[in-house]
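Bench log. Compound arrived from synthesis this morning; before running ITC I wanted a structural hypothesis for how iron/sulfur cluster sits in the protein. Inputs:
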Amino acid sequence: MVTTEETTRNELRAALAGQVDGEVRFDAGTLAVYAHDGSNFRQVPVGVVVPRSVDAAVAAIAVCREAGVPVLSRGGGTSLAGQCCNEAVVIDWTKYCHRLVSVDPAARTAVIEPGMALDKANDALAGHGLMVGPRPSTHVSCTIGGMIGNNSCGASAQAYGKMVDSVRRLEILTYGGLRTWTGETSDAQYEQIIAAGGQKADLYRRLREIRDAYLPAIRTGYPQIPRRVSGYNLDSLLPERGFHVARALVGSESTLVTVLQAEIDLVEVPKHKSLVVLGYPDIAEAADVVPLVVSHSPILLEGLDDTLISLEREEHLSADALSKLPEGSGWLMIQFGGDTAEEADERAHALIEDVNGEGSHPKPHVAYTEDPQVEERLSEVREAGLGATAYPPGKHETHEGWEDAAVPPERLGDYLRDFRKLLERHDYHGASLYGHFGQGCVHTRIPFELRTDDGIAAYRSFMEEAADLVVSYGGSLSGEHGDGQSRGELLPKMFGPELMRAFGELKTAFDPGNRMNPGKVVHPYRLDENLDLRGWFPREPKTLFHYPEDGGKFTKAASRCVGIGKCRGHEGGVMCPSYRVTRDEEHSTRGRSRLLMEMIRGEVITDGWHSTEVRDALDLCLACKGCRKECPVDVDMATYKAEFLAHHYRGKLRPASHYSMGWLPVLALLASAAPRLVNAAGRAPGLGRLLKLAGGIDTNRELPRFARERFTRWYMRREPHPSGTPVTLWPDTFSNGFHPEVAKAAVAVLEDAGFRVDVPTQPVCCGLTWISTGQLGMAARVLKHAIAVLRPALEAGQRVVVLEPSCAAVFRSDAAELLGSDDARLLAKQTTTLAELLTEAGWRPGAENPAGLHTGARRAIAQVHCHQHAIMGFDADRDLLKTCGVDVDVLDAGCCGLAGNFGFERGHYDVSVACAEQGLWPAARDAEPDTAILADGFSCRTQLEAGHLGRTGIHLAQLLADMLPGPADEDRSREPAAVGTGRAASRTGAGRRRLRPHRRGRGGRR
Ligand SMILES: Cc1cc2nc3c(=O)[nH]c(=O)nc-3n(C[C@H](O)[C@H](O)[C@H](O)COP(=O)(O)OP(=O)(O)OC[C@H]3O[C@@H](n4cnc5c(N)ncnc54)[C@H](O)[C@@H]3O)c2cc1C
Ligand code: SF4
Ligand code: SF4
């Protein structure tokens, strides 16, 4: 056999590439991305294989076996204890091996491949009214394989138990090459297996021997609590548990076998639910009531303390849900299920009566709801725990490590009191306490100092004492997340020498050469080895953005990601469109974050800002800001991308698209001298293609059409409105040079609302296109000029209305982050969207003059621009539309895929179109003809047009203008290419009629 030392990485890579149907990746970028899971540890893998099928994974492991190289399976990579990073060949199951193989609704079982994400599996099962019972809060990205690997559970375990309770059979592969189905094994089946001989017989015989040799210890040495996740499940091999080999493997964290397929027991989706929240003066007092609550058989029983809730309040998370909490400083959130609403309701009321009845426990404040939306939001409050507690404002960052210990639920209150004393003794202040109290499992993140030797020594000493404390309560070191490296070393405290020997023998039976995820669970690395942050005092690069949330430090911003994997979700929200298309880790926000962190570290990615690996991973980032809004710890990849591009291309020739699209505002101004000619040239078969090639624009794209007359030109020759509250209407490049009808409609609406509209009289721009192409020096200059032009208006307290959402987002956030000046902050404060201003002003169409008011569109679907989603939100738009009687359905369709320059750039067309096909285009195809498609973003409207769907989008300003009094169809033909449906496109005609053209004496083309 060839040993690791004898095998060069290149030979291994070549063998894998030759024998495995899949992606074989040994490049520095991939190694950097897969060096992390969600834990405090970092280990650089040997290489990564992304098999196209289960059989391909089997072939990959055969190659590793030949080479004697360790292997590690990976699902969502959200593990918190270090069990999903190692110096091994990593098999990433998620890209291709994610099939729901079969469902048997009668038996309530399903066979599922290991790479399928839990939410995806439950979506696929929903049609049968079934679901997988365990539901970790990482349900968006965690996979069936990873859940089996970690014996996962979550809040729903109160009703459905842990993964070990759901696994019926597993198809497994041992490192030695045995591929077989395992499950409960009757004596007769056992005898058959032994009689058949071979590897399986040897293995099963050995398993029986181990079980029988350690029978008393197995029967008595495991704590009998609902949340024992630590250690191997030798107890599943007990005769009274049916010698269940599959369940014995659950929670073995890739250290024993590779799971190829799983047959899972499913549960029925509860028909009706009710929720009670009890508020107590303190979290430990709340915990004291747990046994009483458990006696009412809730399907969920969670605890939350005031530290967590205060942090969520400070960080403005889940504000409306938080307002539903009853008074208190420690809460129990309790859910009941029932076949009917009455049944769920009755159970809730029986509990409320009981907790308020006679007895020694304190009387709680109570909140009760049957509203599924409120319930959903309150459960989000719990799930937001990690995001809220990872970077508490103004305090030390917190870490996992001791984040999921469990004790008997009836002793939880006392345990919490002792645990708090332990934290105080170790000077770890401000850690929040929350978790699955009904099963005695407590979550916390602790402000460990993991950079310095002293800090790490303190962490070790805390971990050892915390383990002693939990063991003294008869608990489990891990009650949810597994042992990995964090708890592996501490397991002897919990299980004692005899069971530890049994674990060692089990490991040898399956993996005699210790090639399966070595150093985790058994024969473990020390808990203070491989720490990601040890000695992490990186030199701070000089940056262009100011990073106010990170104390001005790019290194801190780039290492924000805590690995939850929400950016690997497949539906809902915006984040992360590129991952949804490619399913490659490096195209997720997390992958990019890891790459940037590794770039700063300089070990695997060694050429800093010059790195092509980082550049390539960022290339497919749409800069949509989805992560800024949706990542629980506010990773803002669009900003980091712009920063990286600025450094990467400093002094170098840039891609052609950076010139053509970065300088679009200037080109648009030049094109306004002869727009027809330029439009014709862009569409001429040969010339158009040449222009696109020269500009780095994908040849599949139509060039956007320049307007025949810019909005600013039109504005200058019209008669100004005499009076009203002055507002500045920002002539962004897109509303000015491409869709002037949008800005004209806005003028009409603003004047109807009693405003006097001022428009800057010299060429201005917010710098957006320079920011998105990383030309930050130029962006800063352009922005400073914009602020200088706006200064008189800003100082006069005038609001600046910005119609294009991405430009509004620049004014509201990027400008201050880039310039760091008071001027920029003032600009942010006074910038408003049209909807915000009109809502504030209490405007509704026809308030002043209802005569002649048109109904306009009564129904609309809205594609919220991703920058609006991230920075301004849609609440004001929703309120305004409601006031105007428009029934709006906000699409949960993600980014349109064009995202400014992204979709135009050569090489991005396929990803861009795939994004559109995931949401916007199908929604537009399905929209009723009388339903307007609201799309305030120029990108979104352009992408709609590009789909040739027979539908176009309109800006909110147009939809509102269409309601104003005045003839609807006047002189429509003279308008620029109409956008929108029906009359909505024509109302700029009304604007023109009402605001007579007026040619000023001076002032030329702008
Ligand atoms: C913020 C946060 C919240 C969390 N909340 C919960 C929670 O509520 N409940 C909970 O239980 N956990 C929770 N976790 C932990 C983690 O998300 C879960 O354990 C999850 O189920 C892991 O799934 P995964 O696909 O990410 O697994 P991974 O991290 O990819 O893998 C988990 C383990 O399984 C092994 N594995 C993966 N695939 C296979 C395979 N095919 N064969 C053999 N072994 C395999 C891996 O090697 C690894 O050891 C949380 C984590 C985070 C970061
Ligand atoms: S980028 Fe955000 S959502 Fe993605 S893994 Fe990191 S912390 Fe989680
Ligand atoms: S900006 Fe958008 S594409 Fe880029 S990482 Fe964030 S969510 Fe993904």
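What the model suggests: Residues 575-578, 589, 592, 621-627, 637-638 surround iron/sulfur cluster (ligand 3) (CB under 6 Å). The mean pLDDT is 92.
ITC booked for Thursday regardless.
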